[in-house]
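Issue 218. Parser rejects a valid record. Input:
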Amino acid sequence: MNRVWVWSLLAVLAMAGGAWTDEFPLKEHPDSKDWPDLFGPNLADANFPKGVWYVQDGVLTAKEDRCIWTKKQYENFILDLEFKNAPGSNSGVFVYCSDPQNFIPNSVEIQICDDYAEKWAKMPRSWHSGAIFGHQPPTEQVVKKAGEWNRMTIVCKGPMIYVMLNGKPVNTFDMRKYSSAKKNPDGTDIPPWLSKPKAELPTKGYIGLQGKHGDAPIYFRNLKIKPLE
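Output the parser choked on:
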């Protein structure tokens, strides 16, 4: 093979890699108003326990600590949403879930939490809003106080997960680095109920939201999704 041709090809690939690096993490929240609704119109594309999840005035919430799931599995995508905590809320967004009946060890959770509530403020930072729950804390605390709307954008591209919260990129998570079910790469303990290493999970699955967990409601609106190539 011609050596000049080889070096030209490598240069093109390097440029493509640089462009990809520039694309994520996002610099700002996307314009998602024309994207499809995550759960379809009137929750037609969702699986959830009857009577638990409901929409009122465009706001999705739950009466119990039960999840709502997409009917479809997603691989590479951008998920854009707004959430509002109540005092003491503890919720989350689950991605790459392969088993909704046993979702805790079989998914990745992007944490949503009232970080200002006393019972959650004292927990490890990997339990705070914008964290990959139990694994990697957010780079900074930017969640708003209970009663105010927050915006979160989650990018899932293969093993890479990027989280933006209220205009700040707060997490870049590489599943491949998390090969243990007991210890994170930084030496911190992983909660025992997260019993599967993230490096072993598939990078395709259902998307879900956690309901009224921690005895406090959680509210969502403008849930939009865009598949990526």
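Fixed in the parser; the record now loads. Residues 26-227 form a domain with the Jelly Rolls fold (CATH 2.60.120.560).
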